[in-house]
Amino acid sequence: MTDRNKLDGPGYDAPPSVTTRPESSGPGGSDKKPSSRRGKRVLILAIASLLVIALVGGVVLTSQALNDPDELTNPPPITGTQNPDAGSQGELAVPTRAGGQEVHDPDGGGVHIQVGSAHAAYRSTPATSGPHWSTRPTSAAPSGAPARWGTYTEVLPDEVLVHNLEHGGIGLHYDCPSGCPDIVTALQKIVPSNPSLFVLSPYRGIPAPYTVAITAWRYHLFLESVDLAIIAKFIDEHQDNAPESVPGNMF
Fold first, then answer.
1. Which of 172, 194, 195 has its CA nearest to residue 183?
2. Coil, strand, or helix at residue 103?
3. For position 51, what pLDDT does the model report?
4. How far apart (Å, rounded) are the C-alpha atoms in residues 64 and 54?
5. Checking phi first, is residue 125 left (phi over 0); if not, alpha (psi -120 to 50) or beta?
6. Phi then psi dihedrals of residue 151, to 5 deg
7. Is-above-0.90 flag for pTM?
8. How far is it, in rounded angstroms, from Cα 63 to Cα 56?
9. Which residue intervals of the chain are DSSP H helices?
10. FRET pair for 78, CA 20 to 30 Å: which of 24, 53, 138, 215?
């Protein structure tokens, strides 16, 4: 038997003691829980998945646009009819409305000319822009130009009417060689008691089958009969919308 006293005596070196560090699971421990690591991995994978989905979606949309470039460069055309009076510089008519056809006329300018002087042909019938007179009433131009707002029983020249349109007015015209009292009465009801910005008069040359022409600066509307709803919309859109609009003026 080994003498314990000899082992503990002088000259004896005891073997080093071995200690085992217990795993720390408390708040002050240096090791992290496996569940915490797994949570971070799940979060990272979720974010990465969302980024991949967004990237794939963008690629698909871009591919569709590239496969059909007309969707980007050629939008659907505006439907309408060509203004027959516009010539080589014609413009598309505004889409036809029920009961009539509204046309956006080419710009004929707005130069003032002497009464009776020659000028370039108007680019629409009735004329809605172009050369026109500027004068007080005279024997050559009894109504003056522009004419006073109101109702006339005689035909007024285009050179007069265009000046009224240039001031933002609306022309209400009818062409009935054999007479059309019902149409005249209906148009008269449109003109307010203060007729500012309205001229009602007969006109010669409205193309068949139309009998009514409503005009504004660079716009005209043809109708076969008086349609109050369509005319009211035209007036709302175009009255007092011209180069020299002067609301409430006498001319």
1. 172
2. strand
3. 72
4. 16
5. beta
6. -105, 135
7. no
8. 11
9. 4-7, 34-67, 70-73, 158-166, 181-188, 228-238
10. 215
